[in-house]
Amino acid sequence: MSSEKMTNIFERFALYMEGNTRGVEIMTYGVASIGLLTALYKIRPFAKFTKPFDVPQYFLKSKVPLKGKVVQIQIDNGPLIMVDHKPLIPLPRLGKSKQLPVKIAGVDVNSNGISWLQTVVNNNEVVFTPLLKDKNWLECTVALLQKDQESLQIGRQLVALGFGTVRQLPADLLKNKEVSSYQKSLLIAQKWAQRRRNGYWQFIKQPTLIWQIKNAVNQKLSSILPTVIVKQFNI
């Protein structure tokens, strides 16, 4: 087809479209609607998740954070944090709400940790980011929301207190920078707990004389120094 014929075709099409603005509007709205529906399908703003397999794979792949309230701490299989998931756009629902079972990623929680979860985390709002999906639970990083304070990373806090130990996450997950950073933070917290003989570690590592002296000095310093300095230097 010659360039002259192509030009004539485009000119006729342009003239037709200029005279049919309604068609242009319909086409524009159609494309926009498809884009909106695709976005809504991905983020599921009205969906309330109550089972692990309700959560789309896209959420795990993209590490989409979810929000909810902890209703119960189940001691079986983990333990499991039973979360009443709150959709991005909540809608009125009939009947009793079911909870989504959440396990803290990369942490094996001991009995002291279960008590801590029941005391500190239960009945509070959390943000949880799904990493792995099992038929019985969703394995997530979990952060406790605190009023006027930075959110508390529950997994890291449990490990630092000696109320849990680090469990290696799958290698393919660690390729993600956020997950790798999370795993490293757990390992740092575990070294801290070991050094302080916190929780579990007081039974595993017998305190030496040097450790007892150092611990006494640290406790004295932490009682007289500002909190900011204590946190900065891990005293």
UniProtKB/TrEMBL annotation:
GO CC terms of this entry: extracellular space
Taxonomy, superkingdom: Eukaryota
Protein name per its UniProtKB record: Protein C3orf33
Protein's gene: LOC107265769
